[in-house]
Amino acid sequence: MDDTNFDVVVLGTGLTECVLSGLLSINGYKVLHLDRNKFYGGEGASLNLGQIFEEFKKPKPDEARFGKNMYYNVDLVPKALMADGAMVKIMRTTIVERYQMEFLLLDDSFVLKDQKVHKVPANDREALASGLMGFFEKRRAAKFFSMCQTYDPSKPTTKTAADVYKEFGLEANTIEFIGHAVALYSNDDYLKENAHDLIMRCRLYDDSINAYSGHTPYVYPVYGLGELPSTFSRLCAVYNGTYILGADIQGISKTEAGVFQDITFTFPEGDGRSAPQTIQAKAIIGDPSYFPDRVRLANKIVRCVCICSSPVQVLPKGYETAASCQIIIPQSEFKRKNDIYVLQLSGVHKVCPADKFLVLVSTVLEGPDAEKELAPVLAYLKCTIMEKFVRVSDYKLPLDDGKASKMFVTNSMDSATHFEASARNVLEVFERVHGTPYNFDAALTAMPAQQQ
Fold first, then answer.
1. Domain ranges of the chain
2. Mind listing the pLDDT tens digit for each residue in 161-212?
3. How confident is the model at residue 444 (pLDDT cuts 50, 70, 90)?
């Protein structure tokens, strides 16, 4: 490399890191993006049939049974996008129009109650017909949701979530439904916290449903989530970002005061440049795997990918043929501490052949045996599993905000059903590096004309 000075070095090409490099490059930063892997996406990559069998060290798949490699785009971290969420808003201001990315709504959203799957109501008609609540409870819930829409975020409440529920006289089953199927909390810890976040989450759910007048708030990219990091990488490259895959990180140097100074790496084998390269920059950003001494383990997450010859068999009457859906299983249904998320996808989203389904399950690991922990859930879903792939990942968080050291560590991907936590992490890290929040309104006007 001729140039050894950059504004920011980014390590890892997971979604969070790629979005950050894209946003920073748009805002005038000179970015060097490195990854020890030879592919984009990191943990958030989408793999074809042969790649996922190889990744999990299984024998080469029989294409006559499973279908061709090219028909699969299997996500290692299954998540949907909230249609009006922060991640979608970031994409609208940066990549969607430019790179003609295509998204489809999931067909439906469901929640498990008393071991029976119910449609999560998307409008007043569905709410009145729903078996999730009794008649009078529906009226109380309607008043709660009305309050969420008229709530003024500039005047945040001082009440806890539990206090607000009590104020509206909501029953325990309704509280579980709202907290887990609408606000999308993975456990009940939020009940003791300020209700502002609960109210804003409920508003986001409603706004996401109304964004495309659909039956669910969730959208999903055609060809899988792996398209997202690679597309943000292309955006960064357009704005003079430099990418090197397969780089071997030799060391990160700091000043005596503990502030980031430079990074040394070697180019990938076969590149022709064998001498180590040292790069100076004003800041460095990376996923937790690059900074093991600057993170803490919050919990472990188990994710299971199932290739199935049939869809799940537990959907309510009238919804049995849903090609795609989300099923939220509150923790109480299987006597757990954390919710379980089920995402079903099909050939409609170009992630598997037309006669196959992907059923993806994720949750916080609570015991020593991941397979045993997921077994009751997979048995309940009654889908015909041809092959399954189970992985346990560490969920790690940085020990500090990185402002003093200029070493900014991102969060691992959580177990949630959506990307809102990742979007918040992107915006938080961007603000720490840039000094001011990301300006959604100015993003498009900042683009050169040929890129708009």
1. 5-45+222-296+397-451, 121-215
2. 999 999 999 999 999 999 999 999 999 999 999 999 999 999 999 999 999 8
3. low
Q: What Å distances lie between residue 286 and 17, 300, 331, 397, 409, CA to CA?
A: 7, 20, 32, 12, 5
CA neighbor of 121 nearest in space, from 334, 311, 319: 319
pTM over 0.85: yes
Task: Give Cα separations from 395 to 11, 41, 213 (angstroms).
Answer: 18, 17, 35
Spatial distance between the Cα atoms of 103 and 423, rounded to a whole number of angstroms: 18
8 Å CB contact between 418 and 339: no
The average pLDDT across 396-420 equals 95
Q: What is the reported pLDDT for 452?
A: 40
CATH architecture observed for domain 5-45+222-296+397-451: 3-Layer(bba) Sandwich (3.50)
Distances (CA, A) of 169 to 137, 198, 423: 9, 16, 33
Q: Does domain 121-215 have CATH number 1.10.150.20?
A: no
Residues comprising the chain, all counted: 452
